[in-house]
């Protein structure tokens, strides 16, 4: 099970204490319900709610800087992780490695 990053400082060193998540770097404490209340919601191109660990499909060819080939439409990406920002999906794409994608270019499987 992977724990979510801290919503306050984005630290990856969070730990679980009973029903709360705690960040040792900034001291922020939250639970899963708090994250939903804060408005961190990521939806795919069809409006489906995405969550950590979901699998998605790329809906159009995406050019990649430094790569000779684009990520092709229909490429399946497993075990995504949601992050805040413009590119809000953190994942590994077969043949390309670690990558950040925009949720508007994927659909949930």
How widely separated are the two ends?
A: 21 Å
Helix content: under 10%
CATH class term of the largest domain: Mainly Beta
The low-confidence parts are none
What can be said about the biggest beta sheet? Answer: 3 strands, antiparallel
Strand elements, count: 9
* Biggest sheet strand line-up: 1-2-3
CATH topology assignment of the largest domain: SH3 type barrels
- Indicate the structural class: mainly beta
Which CATH-level-2 architecture of the largest domain? Roll
The number of distinct helices, counting runs of at least 4 residues, comes to 1
Element string (H = helix, E = strand): EEEHEEEEEE
Mean pLDDT: 86
What's this model, at a glance?
With about 110 residues, this protein is mainly beta.
């Amino acid at each position: 099970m992977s724990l979510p990053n801290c919503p306050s400082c984005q630290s990856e060193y969070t730990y679980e204490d009973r029903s709360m998540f705690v960040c040792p770097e900034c001291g922020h404490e939250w639970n899963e319900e708090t994250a939903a209340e804060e408005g961190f919601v990521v939806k795919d191109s069809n409006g489906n709610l995405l969550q950590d660990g979901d699998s998605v499909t790329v809906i159009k060819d995406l050019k990649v800087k430094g790569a000779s080939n684009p990520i092709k439409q229909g490429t399946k990406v497993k075990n995504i992780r949601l992050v805040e920002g413009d590119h809000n999906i953190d994942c590994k794409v077969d043949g390309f490695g670690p990558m950040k994608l925009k949720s508007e270019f994927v659909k949930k499987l």
